[in-house]
Write a structure and sequence with these properties.
The chain is built from 6 helices and no strands. The protein has 127 residues and is an all-alpha fold. α3 crosses α5 (105-114) and α5 crosses α6 (116-126).
Amino acid sequence: MIFKFASLIRKSIMTRVKKAVNALKYRRNILKMTKGYRFGRSKKERQAQEAVFHAGIHAFAHRRDKKSDYRKLWNVKINAAVRPAGLSYSRFINALKKKNIVLDRKILADLAENNPESFGRVLEAVK
């Protein structure tokens, strides 16, 4: 009875898979990704793998942060441009919405910085 069971197990065992080429390629790619990192993070496979993993997490988070940073920058540029006209940033944005002028902050900041006469026309339309 036991022998029959053992033969069933032996037949169901899968063949051994050696990852030689693929594993080498994967490790080489990880080490390429960590080129320029300091200490063992660029030379030791395990540390390199962790470094790449953490870098990916930070990259994902900072792609989100970048959007927020740019919006803050646009707000500062718009505020600096509307202050000489006697308006604050919040009153200017509110007036834009009331007059149904649909310009986003990115465009407004660009106009304020690079094309002040066009931004002045927007200001006149708001007042």
